[in-house]
Amino acid sequence: MQGWLTKELASNPDLRNKLIRGFKLSFWIAATFIAMQILIGLKFTFYKDLNPNITTSDGTRYPGFFADAQVNAQYLGMLSFLFLINFKNIKKTCFGKLRFIQPGADNAFLLRRPIAF
């Protein structure tokens, strides 16, 4: 069963580039938000109660626009990989050739080798 995003990407290849540009924009918004927290302080936030591990004896962990600093670090870490994409070398999408594994089905033929339990 394919998801709606996968179907849309298969029919509209330009959507992938728009999505990646949108995620890159959200990265820069998050980085700007952290810069504002560094300059103004932890009062620059969306939450009135922050996670207790934000300020420790080791220092301050800036949460960004999340309530927890670890979630913010994971968000920025995952989005930073998008800046490694070289759009000039991408020829076409491969979403039409994907095989999806259905839960509960016998998917051994997808692995091209026998499964031993």
Give, in spatial order, the strands making up the sheet with the most strands.
Answer: 1-2
Q: What is the element string, with H for helices and E for strands?
A: HHEEHH
Mean pLDDT: 76
Beta content comes to under 5%
Structural class: mainly alpha
What percentage of residues falls in helices of 4 or more residues? 40-55%
Largest sheet: 2 strands, antiparallel
Q: Please mark out the parts with pLDDT under 50 across 5 or more consecutive residues, or reply none.
A: none
Tell how many strands the DSSP assignment holds. 2
Number of helices: 4
N- and C-termini, Cα separation: 26 Å
- Give the total of domains: 1
Shape: elongated
List keywords for this structure.
117 residues; mainly alpha; two-stranded antiparallel sheet; 4 helices
Report on this model:
The protein is mainly alpha-helical and 117 residues long. The longest helix is centred in the first third of the chain and has 27 residues. It has four helices and two strands. It is 44% helix and 3% strand. The mean pLDDT is 76. It has one domain.
Please outline the helices and strands.
Elements: H1 4-11, H2 14-40, E1 55-56, E2 59-60, H3 69-80, H4 108-111
Helix pairs in contact: 2-3
Short synopsis of the structure:
The chain has 117 residues and is mainly α. It has helices at residues 4-11, 14-40, 69-80, 108-111, and strands spanning 55-56, 59-60.
